[in-house]
User: What shape does this take?
Amino acid sequence: MSQQIQEKYEESQLYKIRHSAAHVMAQAVLDMFPDGKITIGPPVENGFYYDFDLPRNLTPEDLEAIEKRMRQIVQGKHEFKKTVISAEEAKKIFADQPYKLELIEGLEKGGTDEYGNPLKEKPEISIYQHDTFVDLCRGPHVQSTKEIKQDAFKLMNIAGAYWRGDENNKMLQRIYGTAWENAQQLKDYLHQLEEAKKRDHRKLGKELEIFIFDDEVGPGLPLWLPNGGILIEELEKLAKEMEEAAGYSRVRTPILTKEDLFLRSGHLPYYAESMYAPMELEGVKYYVKPMNCPMHHKIFGAKQRSYRDLPVRLAEYGTCYRYEKSGELFGLMRVRSMQMNDAHIYCSEDQFEQEFLGVVDLYRKYFDLFGIEKYVMRLSLHARSGLGKKYVDNERLWLKTEEMVRRAMDNGGVPYVEAEDEAAFYGPKIDVQVWSAIGREFSLMTNQVDFAVPERFDLKFTNKEGHDEVPLCIHRAPLSTHERLVGFLLEHYAGNFPVWLSPEQARVISITDNQNEYAENIAKQLRKNGVRAHADLSSQRMNAKIRSAQLMKVPYMLVVGDNEMKAEQVSLRVRDGSQQNNILLSDFIARAKDRIARRAAGL
Ligand SMILES: [Zn+2]
Ligand SMILES: [Zn+2]
Assistant: This one.
């Protein structure tokens, strides 16, 4: 079932197209600025860039002209030709290109490639030429510019970038472009970008009053508004129901602990950079916790355990704090305080497969519920060269545990890919990547198999033979953190949450003040029946009231005028545009309760 890690990006046709488009762009820029200096231009995710040192600042009109020139160039069907040359020859070719000369010197010395990245061996020096343009380059490229389809690339924007990323160096002008195999792929990508902008969780989070950040509270520390509070309550309710059914026990642990605990777990000193600085109380250092595991280990270890008690599954929606540099914070996706859908499963080796698949099963149920159609589990393995450094120094255990995970995935029919040298310190991990409704990829969840830390905590159970045995520990968080999950769901649903998740499920709208009492009464009855509702009794006209409910993406609007009041009925307008006039309130309540109870996707 394990697919070999898909074709490496560096070897793909798309990479060659983008790399070649970067050359073509550099040629077009030099046509426009014959004295311009070129630096480097690698492919990146979704496209490419090239950095230039030019006599003046580029304008959006320049980008259009450069793009136009690029189209002419690619139609010339020029071949890309590689030549291996000596450093001397290279210096002659690039005599008036000082940045290239610097790169050639780097190549000559060895230790860096033509982009200035560290390199183990001394590279050969090569150039690629197409048409009149020559670049210092080791490829790979497409055969001919005709493989760069003239309607499948686009220049996106201009940005500033320091030469070699060093702010002491000169500021260069970077042009970003995107390139694809065909026009349709480009169109799809541009559409996705546009949708992602509309669905940006920071924008929707503000509009739908889900969360805010406050300067005096601090960066990366979200404040959940009442609507966000409801989302979180609903997600926790879901997790708790599912975990209870799957045999988990709930525990609670404090936010602060003594330094000793993290010394024992090994987080200190290795993980210290990601932790908040300690506070000292009565001569003892205390840390706010970056994760819950060590405390759960203590709970497991607080009692004598026999094989009959296993597996033990301890769950907690624990709040953790991690220090992230302020420049790396990003909305809800990268924060400093987080509430994690955390649990630790302690089991024996022969229980491992069943427990592991139990976790995978939970994932799949959540994916079904949220309509996540595309996902990949990525099994991250150790690398021999990292043993004793990045990884616990016990190759035998690594190989054994990795094989156990692989077997469990194979036997459970779980699609996965393998990635070497990306494991956690104490064991292999499974990163789960999911795709939102508009096809953007998110890394939200991780499972880890831990064969090392239970031993550090002296965790044990008495096995069937009456001997002490160290349990395995599975760390899992299928619903990620509230922060990341809500960030993802905002984009995934574009804010149109299913009824069960919607902060406000129904809004009652009176047509005139005459029906205000009736409207208020209906809202009360709805709330009594477990439907989150309120009545809009403002003096606005009905259409304005409907508009404001639509802006908040409320799934149900109940409009009441004199007719409805006399007949003790309501008129229902659903978020999807459908409408049902004059229905009994009890019929609407039955419908809403059914959608909520089933956590239905439909309205
Ligand atoms: Zn190149
Ligand atoms: Zn953990």
Summary: The first helix runs from residue 13 to 32.
